[in-house]
Design goal:
The structure holds two protein chains of two kinds. By secondary structure, chain A is mostly helical. Chain A is built from 17 helices and three strands. Chain A has two domains: 135 residues, no CATH class; 220 residues, MetI-like fold (Orthogonal Bundle). Chain B has ten helices and twelve strands. The chains are: A mainly alpha, B alpha/beta.
Chain lengths: 422, 258
């Protein structure tokens, strides 16, 4: 009898030990996946925050720029920079033939003319003089410099020619190639050229979409939740509504995209590809999430608080607004932020309502066409150029950073609220 | 309290039936409550004494499936009548619950809430005064006067319950209902509350539901005994405890069941 008991006890201890082990290995696995994932993204993405510049001497020849004596600011703006730009690139190799001159030109981005113009506008006294100007390297050379480009491929399979590589290596040796922080990644809109592509358009698009989504979804969801939870009679009809709110939360997001396409764009004729339409579509998706979170936190408010207020002679409305709702706010807010975070990462519905369009302007309002961060990732991931590979990871890093900041914010708000009374 | 030798009746209930859905919880209750006295409602668990108490300030309205029939007359007015406004009713009839349930706000805000929603104070000074008197009446002032702006939930259980009593009397109710106010408290806190109840009956009519017969005997002047939804016997506490008419009352009081 006694021995039997001991065996049972041992068995129990072993079972618990095993269970702990399973739990620990599960956590270990999860952490491992997360680490691999983050390492992969960082190792591919970090180089996108650096940009390669070629330092090229440019002679600001007034004659080539078709400038008269003592030009005004307007004249400088209208001047022809293409020829001096072309000449300064061609001058990198005095013996270059016409083909090679063309190749030299393609070593920098097509912005090179603008970069030279900016230099002169900043300092008009440069006319007639020669100055080293920073020009954005083409994305292929950028990748070569970062070591992401296989140089040992046969020439006909490369986008960089042997001649370009030769000149580039000379420049590197002379210290005329520099890597600097890639500010344009944050300030430029999307571009077909990897070296000029930035996230400004999609970042603003995401912000506007989220704001529109928040402004629509939050009040509607909170009012619906408060009414359903506190005021509505409990009958078949409200049960039916409740079931359908839960169903709504389970609807695949692409269906909401179709809804936006079919109703917002086709029937209401709202402007296509805009954060306004995107935000409304996302708000439909976020609505059930917030309603469910808000109702759950209303339910969690102890009934004794409601009774206390009612017994003091507070009306139903006062009880709800003075006591129940403020107490449920931390839960509601964190639910809202989780909903918004979901919406922020949502791609499918935005593709359907046209936010996948190539947008090379930065939107100034929710009514301007824009992309969004996840859609930007999708667009870049589809692009063939090697330069976009690192941009995809960098964009993911920005998106993740955005989400982490949002969640942190939610945590802080929540903590502050709850600390007060615990 | 007797005026010219006549008992003053504050609450008069006639043929009160209460149903939870199809189940009847109270059967034909006829009970008069004397003014400025403490009336104790005793009986075993589930006998309907709390249900009856909650009829008196219409707290049963909160429960969807609960229906109340019959008349409950307070100040010549039937509170079950459609014209009765629950907000005004509950302003006159305060309630203290079984578990202390202060609002998760400061001590000051706990007391000032009732007077604020009923517009009883015109200025900050008046409100300060109401808070002070209420806390003094609830014998809590000395303990909390230096931390009025700290959360009420940070007080001890007994203090929280006294805070709830202070909150209830802040709107100067005529009647205070107490639903087992000491069941979550230790003996010392219980003694303090009982003392307080005795003090409060000068200004208020008090009805207290209790599981403790000793408590009923200590604090009340009148007692009603409930069993299985019926009011078996009621009368002066002395009589109920010393000389009950009904066999069931006697069995319960002597501890043979319950």
């Amino acid at each position: 009898m006694n021995k039997n008991k001991e065996q049972l006890l041992n068995k129990r201890y072993k079972a618990e030990k095993r269970f702990r082990l399973y739990g620990q290995s599960a956590i270990f696995m999860a952490l491992l996946f997360l680490t691999i994932f983050i390492f992969k993204i960082f190792s591919t993405g970090y180089s996108a925050f650096q940009k390669t510049w070629l330092i090229v001497p440019v002679t600001f020849d007034a004659e080539l720029m078709m400038l008269e004596q003592n030009p005004s600011k307007e004249d400088l703006k209208d001047a022809d920079y293409y020829d001096i730009a072309l000449k300064s690139m061609a001058d990198l190799d005095p013996n270059a033939n016409e083909n090679q001159e063309n190749e030299l030109k393609r070593m920098v981005s097509y912005f090179f003319e603008r970069e030279i113009k900016r230099e002169l506008l900043n300092d008009p006294s440069l006319i007639g003089k020669t100055k080293d100007v920073y020009l954005t390297a083409s994305d292929d050379l950028d990748q070569v410099f970062k070591g992401n480009y296989p140089r040992d491929l046969p020439e006909d399979q490369r986008r960089v020619t042997d001649y370009q590589l030769k000149i580039f290596d000379q420049l590197v040796e002379l210290g005329k190639v520099e890597s600097k922080f890639n500010l344009s990644f944050f300030t430029y809109p999307d571009s077909r050229e990897a070296e000029l592509a930035g996230i400004a358009s999609s970042f603003m698009g995401s912000i506007f979409s989220i704001l529109v989504c928040l402004m629509i979804a939050f009040p509607v969801a909170v009012l619906a939740a408060i009414y359903l939870e506190e005021f509505a009679p409990k009958n078949r009809f409200t049960d039916f509504i409740e079931v359908n709110i839960n169903n709504l939360a389970a609807v695949p997001s692409i269906v909401f995209g179709l809804l936006g396409l079919g109703i917002l764009l086709a029937v209401f004729q709202l402007p296509r590809s805009t954060p306004l339409v995107g935000g409304i579509t996302l708000s439909l998706m976020t609505l059930p999430t917030i309603i469910i979170a808000c109702r759950a936190s209303l339910k969690a408010v102890p009934p004794s608080i409601r009774e206390a207020a009612l017994a003091m002679g507070a009306s139903k409305m006062q009880t709800t607004m003075h006591h129940t709702v403020p107490l449920s706010m931390p839960g509601t807010l964190s639910g809202t932020i989780i909903g918004l975070a979901q919406a922020l990462g949502e791609t499918a519905p935005l593709i359907l309502i046209g936010m996948v369009a190539f947008v090379n302007t930065i939107p100034g309002s929710p009514l301007d066409p824009a992309a969004s961060l996840p859609v930007q990732i999708y667009i870049w991931a589809e692009s063939a150029e090697r330069g976009f590979v690192e941009k995809v990871s960098a964009c993911i890093m920005v998106l993740l950073g955005f989400l982490i900041i949002m969640n942190l914010f939610a945590q802080i708000i929540r903590h502050k609220f709850e600390k007060k009374w615990s | 309290m007797k005026k010219n030798g006549v008992k003053m009746i504050k609450i008069n209930s006639k043929n009160v039936d209460v149903f939870y859905g199809k189940k009847q919880a109270l059967f034909n209750i006829n009970l008069d409550i004397e003014e400025n006295q403490v009336t104790a409602l005793i009986g075993p668990s589930g006998c309907g004494k709390s249900t009856f108490l909650r009829c008196l300030n219409r707290m049963n309205d909160v429960i969807d499936i609960c229906r109340v029939k019959g008349q409950i007359i307070i100040n010549d007015f039937d509170i079950n009548d459609k014209s009765c406004d629950v907000v005004r009713l509950r302003e006159k009839i305060g309630m203290v619950f079984q578990k202390p349930n202060p609002f998760p706000k400061t001590i000051y805000e706990n007391i000032s809430y009732g007077p604020t929603i009923h517009g009883m104070a015109q200025s900050k000074n008046e409100m300060d005064e109401i808070v002070e008197t209420s806390l003094k009446k609830a014998a809590l002032w000395e303990e909390v006067k230096d931390r009025l702006h700290e959360p009420g939930t940070g007080l001890s259980g007994g203090q929280q319950q006294r805070l709830c009593i202070a909150r209830a009397i802040s709107v100067k109710p005529e009647v205070i209902l107490m639903d087992e106010p000491c069941s979550a408290l230790d003996p010392i806190a219980t003694a303090q509350i009982e003392e307080l109840i005795d003090e409060l009956k000068k200004d208020h009519t008090i009805i207290i539901v209790t599981h403790s017969m000793a408590q009923a005997a200590r604090v009340s002047q009148n007692t009603g005994f409930f069993h299985l939804g019926e009011l078996i016997e009621h009368g002066s506490t002395d009589k109920i405890f010393k000389n009950p008419e009904n066999k069931k009352t006697q069995d319960y009081i002597t501890g043979r069941f319950g």
